Amino acid sequence: MPPFQTLLDDHAADVMGVLRGAVGRADAEDCFQETFLAALRAYPRLGNDENLRGWLLTIAHRKAIDHHRANGRKAAPMADPPEVPVEDPEPLDGEIWSAVGALPPKQRAAVALRYGSDLPHADIAAALGCSPEAARRSLHEGLKRLRKELA
Amino acid sequence: MKATLQRLAERADAEGLLDVAYASLDSPFGPLLLAATPRGLVRVNLPNQDPGQALEELAAKVSPRVLEAPARLDQARRELDLYFAGKLTEFGLPIDWALAHGFRGKVQRAIERIPYGQTRTYTEMARRAGNERAVRAAGTACGTNPIPIVVPCHRVLRSGGGLGGYGGGLPMKEALLELEGVR
User: Fold this and answer.
1) How far apart (Å, rounded) are the C-alpha atoms in residues B46 and B66?
2) What secondary structure letter does DSSP report for A50?
């Protein structure tokens, strides 16, 4: 196995990019730490260094899902919702990404990997552990749904 | 990103996942690469040796959990700086002998005990390691010393007084002996 540092040198920026797409800039740092600590824990037993990038992105994806689950549990309804909306927020990237966050896991991952970090289909397939066709399908389904949601 | 990676190294260390930490050090001879396990200094890579290869060797022979994490090398860097400045004659930092095996390992441990400013011959080192006739093996042990400078293989010379060899190149061996006031 190559020294773990080379995984950081080669893929840290990509992993951070994927996580920023999946959980937002503010929480990406925590997910990044969790991703690489988990990878470091498992690394000596991995025994196969053929697609380390795909392996790291898979872990990052799982950490992003964990993060969304934990947040889902925390989100309690407010006691006194404000009656008047303070201001209509600009429909920026944030809205798109929260819609991405609401997609089913595979579609969400495919969209985040494709547009959050600009991965080709083959890498998305490797990260998701599926065939390139299946990755393409998830991406397609995800985009179709997003178009409907955001229309 | 730099702060993020530093935090990662700290957390890895705290969770017992930082098996090999490394850092570089500017020496008068060029950049040294230093590596340490939780037990101690395990590798010093000299300026003319490929640092990438040294890290791969550590990954293969000690653990693949190798991270750039200078904090663990603070003592080593401090002591080496003082040594190069001529202000330190005995290293106090802990050593991990994980890369020193068999007869070579015995020779390397014997080399560690050669005092500052003194020299020994390859024959003497072979004898100290328990086999006086294994002079060539003693030479190989010097050549494969994983922790040069701190384990001072530059203090081992030929019986006739010739310099012998040095992994960092003979000019470096001569300069180290000169620094210690030997030649």
Assistant:
1) 18
2) T
Strand pairing category for B41-45 and B30-36: antiparallel
Active site annotation includes B142: no
- Quickly name the fold that domain B2-84 has: Double Stranded RNA Binding Domain (3.30.160)
Q: What is the pLDDT of residues A7-35, one digit of tens each?
A: 999 999 999 998 988 888 889 999 999 99
Q: Which of B114, B125, B153, B157 is catalytic?
A: B153
CA atoms of B156 and B143, how far apart (whole Å): 11
pLDDT digits (tens, 9 = 90+) for B46-78: 999 999 999 999 999 999 999 999 999 999 999
Q: Which residue in B156, B23, B6 sits closest to B80, CA to CA? A: B23
Q: Do B64 and A44 contact (CB within 8 A), yes or no?
A: yes
Torsion, CA A110, CA A115, CA A120, CA A126, rounded to 10:
-30
Q: What is the CATH number of domain B102-179?
A: 1.10.10.10
In chain B, CATH 3.30.160 covers 2-84
CATH of region A4-150: 1.20.140
Rounded Cα–Cα distance for residues B23 and B182 (Å): 30
**Complete DSSP assignment for A53-118:** HHHHHHHHHHHHHHHHHHHHHH-PPPSS--SS-S-PPP--HHHHHHHHHTS-HHHHHHHIIIIIS-
pLDDT tens across B4-37, in order?
999 999 999 999 999 999 999 999 999 999 999 9
User: Looking at beta carbons, which residues of chain B come within 8 Å of A36?
Assistant: 8
Best probe of the A interface among B11, B43, B58, B61, by most A CBs < 10 A, is B11
Chain A environment of B65 (Cβ under 8 Å):
4, 40, 43-44
A74 pLDDT above the threshold of 80: no
